[in-house]
Amino acid sequence: MRPILVTDHPELLDNCLRIAAAVGVEIELVPDVGAARARWGGGSLVLVGADVAQRVALATPARRSGVIVVAVDEPNAAIWQAAVSLGAEHVAVFPAADSWLASRFADAQQGPIRSGLVVGVRGAHGGVGTSTIAAGLSLVAARNGYRTLLIDGDCAAGGLDVLLGAENEPGMRWPEIMSARGRIAPSDFESALPHLNGVSVLSWDRGPLMPFVTDAVEAVMSTAIRGFDVTIVDLGRDSETSFESHLSATVLVVAASVLSVAAAHRVLKSPTRLIEPLHLVVRGSAADADLVAESLGRPVTASCPDEGDVRRAAGEGELPAMRRRGSLTSACTTLMATLQPQPQAA
Q1: pTM of the model
Q2: Are 313 and 321 in contact (CB under 8 A)?
């Protein structure tokens, strides 16, 4: 469906057409308030010019999402009141709103907005196999038919694409996206990334170390939530805290050792970095998991005994070959069933 524009103002019309053309969107111009009421529920967005906003509001159209009031001058109190009456999500004033409206057009062109599951995977300490669990979880999600994104949240690591054997796959990495601001169209983002076994991967490369740029993280996470059913973020010990605000759940990976449990105790005392619900994964047997659960005072969602072949495969960049009936697959399948992501229409 095309956006609908209701206005008699030539400058408003020109501005809207210009921005829509820049993102490849066609606008349907509605000539009067009566026609606007008849078409009110039909467009992907409804843009109401400030010149007719009060008249449209007096026609009392049914409440709907995606209503935007557009203006070329700062709106007065009457225009703001009309926007409230219409249930408008925003009052966009040109030219300041050019980039915002372009992003909104791009969003509408993608179809219904998703609200995907975002899971942060964190280790109690280094070397516990956090990246292996994150990668395994994303591969299981993709096998289950979810549109899946795996994000490398550790700028000091060697790059998740290496773990997945995808370091030579073409596509965008973090350094190339650091200039991103605002919204990114999900379809453009997905097509620009490397893909492996149904998983889209945003990884670091082997270039010089650089910090995360908060605006870029916000842009990526906003796009991930709207464009994917499941997003898995491999969180390093010092990961950018911008990730935490977007998480739906956290997975904490603990080894079956005294030192690892002690480290997990410390992590659990930092609640701002552990978004609930929190799921514990123990790298050990079921008996080990029971002992860890008792020590930490929290239930364990899954246990994952060490598999020598998986460890060797991960070291050689061949993790996608993990066995479908192995402990890693079993643990990640249990986790995915507990997380219960909801598939969404494309």
Answers
A1: 0.69
A2: yes
3-state secondary structure of 314: helix
Tokens standing for residue 45: 């967005």
Q: DSSP state, 82?
A: H
Burial of 93 (0-12, 13-18, 19+ CB in 10 A): middle
Distance, in Å, from the CA atom of 159 to the CA atom of 51, rounded to the nearest integer, reads 53
What tens-digit pLDDT sequence spans the chain (346 residues)?
Answer: 789 999 999 999 999 999 999 888 899 998 788 888 888 988 889 999 999 999 999 988 888 888 999 999 999 999 999 999 998 888 999 999 898 898 888 777 765 555 789 999 999 998 888 999 999 999 999 999 999 999 999 888 878 888 887 888 899 999 888 866 555 667 678 889 999 889 999 999 888 888 888 878 888 888 888 889 999 999 976 555 678 878 889 999 999 999 999 999 998 887 656 778 999 999 999 999 999 999 999 999 999 887 665 555 555 555 554 556 678 888 999 999 999 776 654 4
Distance CA 29, CA 309 (A): 62
User: Domains along the chain?
Assistant: 4-109 (3.40.50.2300), 117-339 (3.40.50.300)
How many other C-beta atoms lie within 10 A of the C-beta of residue 127? Answer: 8
